[in-house]
Write a structure and sequence with these properties.
Layout (H helix, E strand, L loop, with lengths): L3 E6 L4 H13 L2 E7 L12 E4 L5 H11 L4 E4 L11 H21 L4 E7 L22 H14 L6 E7 L1 E3 L6 H10 L4 E4 L8 E3 H11 L5 E5 L8 H11 L6 E4 L1 H13 L7 H6 L9 H7 L7 H15 L22 H8 L1
Helix pairs in contact: 1-6, 2-3, 3-4, 7-11
Amino acid sequence: MKQKKVLITGGNGFLGQHLVHYFLEQGRVVPVVFDMLRIPMDVGKRYISVQGDIRSKKDVSRIFENFGPFDAVYHLASAMPDRSMSDTATWDISVSGTIHIARAAHEHNVRSLVFTSSNVIYGIPASLPVTESTPLRPIEVYGRSKVQAERELAKFQGTMNIQIIRCPVITGVGRLGLQAILFEFISENRNVYVLGDGSNRYQFVDATDVCQALAKASESQGFDIYNIGGDGVKTMKELYEIVIKFANSSSRIVSLPQGPALFTLSLLDTLSISPLGIYQYSMLGRSMYADTTKIKTKLGWNPQKTIPGSFLENYTWYLAHKNDFDEVGRGTASSNRSVPKKRIFSLLKALS
């Protein structure tokens, strides 16, 4: 059977590495990784890694001309909200980069393009669960850039198969970011904090489940948009309690008054001493989950991992690798594959 060749933009990020390994396990796909970061993965020489910038038409053209033709493009490259990333750069990576990738895919007769969007495009929705028809009301530049990227892709309807998957926070083995701070507090028997009573329900999805959805989406015809997310959404307090119990930790869950806490987080964000962006702290005490009926029905996708199970797998991995992580700004890892600078969390840790 002929091997397929696929392009994965942002392939050195958290989800990207999971997708590379997913395809390598299939044995019939050669992944070509295109990323600003060049991080060797322990997978031998069974994939191709090319460093480049999707904001550069020249870099994008070169990847298609030198390494194509591609059977499918998985466009994961993105710019997560980060102190090191300006709003302009965030917009250009998500929007200009998407335009460059879509144009090149069209010009080189790529059959399918699959794009990972985000549930942040819904902002703070008026009702839950969100559906694919819920109004888009992003509250910060990352969400607005994802909305515009979706609109740019819609212009290519009819020229190739385009599938858009709106993801919540993706978790699973190797996920760090803010999850690493939670795990650090629990592993050291420190208090962990929730806004209000912790009864808000927030949806996650495991990276391996997203990979299966991406592969299925690339076989779908036409243009479509799907929400994705894990089943059995827990409250944040319930989820933390499950991890604490699994860790045999003496950590306690401490409730913070929601109003004063949000005001403080907003102030700290203004002063650039919080690792949380506006969407992150705005949603801390709120619920967010999606109706995933469409992706299950049309693509035949169903999550194989529960949300708590995904957290526990990652906690076990975290303990085994706790001393090997880079902080953002010190290494070359993406923000979801490194431990964020704690800033205000250092004070919380000292008080816990």
